[in-house]
Amino acid sequence: MPHQVLEPVRPEVSPVAGRIGAVVTRVRLSGDLPERVVAELGRALLRHRVLFFRDQHHLDAAGQARFARRLGEPAACCGHGRADAWHTDGTFAERPPKAMLMRAIEVPRHGGDTVWANTAAAYEDLPAELRELADRLWVLHGHGDARAEHPLVRVHPETGERAILLGGFARSIVGLSSRADSGALIRLFQEHVTRLENTVRWRWAPGDVAVCDNRATQHRVVQDFGGRPRLLWRVAVGGDVPVPVPVDGRSGAARPPAAGG
């Protein structure tokens, strides 16, 4: 009887919501995954922005870090500030993380979900006049003593899509002297990001792992669990300097001078 070559099991990817999020099954996450599987997961992450894996109870901190290294170079995990405010991780750094991996260790019996938003879909939904304005704006982000200026719209380095770069670390529009005007613009664009159509909500169970593309998402915890325990272990994958949208034939939108400068 001839030897039968079995086809390797492929990950199964099932969308959760219309614009963001997918559950991946038939994968046991580890640093030893075949390159083919890692590549498939990478493509799924670019398409769905955040991937969810159930029942990864075998992972510990070291195993989670080894799997993260298959996605890129590890990076220092940036502080949240208030995790119950919408944010993209590490926007106060020159190079925000490329991806974030969260592993549920202990979760409340009820509540404590995390919600993600698709910032590329939010940009696509903007009226043309607002897109043209957004393409030219720069934003100061800050957390503690850390500060960084980034374009309000970044070009995704792998897909070429445009995504809104804001969130809870955004402090002001560069070049605007009026705090009221600056805050109004930030709220305007931020509200487009967090429209329900752009979001997915995940109910955690111990052993769950979520991997999100930090270059095209925001997220926040739903603070509805009081003092009950909620422990998620996070690992960051290093990213790059956000690239602005080309404007008027230039390689990127020019950074405006600081107010009063």
Q: Briefly, what CATH class?
A: Alpha Beta
Distance from N terminus to C terminus (CA atoms, Å) equals 81 Å
CATH architecture: 4-Layer Sandwich
Q: What is the helix content?
A: 10-25%
Structural class: alpha+beta
Order of helices and strands: EEHEHEEEHHEEEEEHEEEEE
Number of DSSP helices?
5
Largest sheet: 7 strands, mixed
- The total strand number stands at 16
Tally of distinct domains: 1
Please list the strands of the largest sheet in the order they lie side by side.
Answer: 1-2-3-13-5-15-4
> Could you name the CATH topology?
Double-stranded beta-helix
CATH superfamily grouping: Clavaminate synthase-like
Mean pLDDT: 93
Strand content is 25-35%
- As residue ranges, the low-confidence spans are none
Radius of gyration computed on alpha carbons: 19 Å
Tell the overall outline: globular
Could you characterize what this model shows?
With 261 residues, this protein is of the alpha+beta class. It has one domain (12-244): Double-stranded beta-helix. It is built from five helices and 16 strands. The chain has helices spanning 35-48, 61-69, 119-125, 128-136, 179-193; strands at 12-15, 22-25, 50-53, 74-75, 99-106, 114-118, 138-143, 146-151, 153-155, 162-164, 170-173, 199-202, 209-213, 217-221, 231-237, 243-244. The strands form four sheets. It has a seven-stranded mixed sheet, covered by helices on one side. A three-stranded antiparallel sheet has the order 12-6-14. The chain has a three-stranded antiparallel sheet with strand order 8-7-11. The longest helix is centred in the C-terminal third of the chain and has 15 residues, at 179-193.
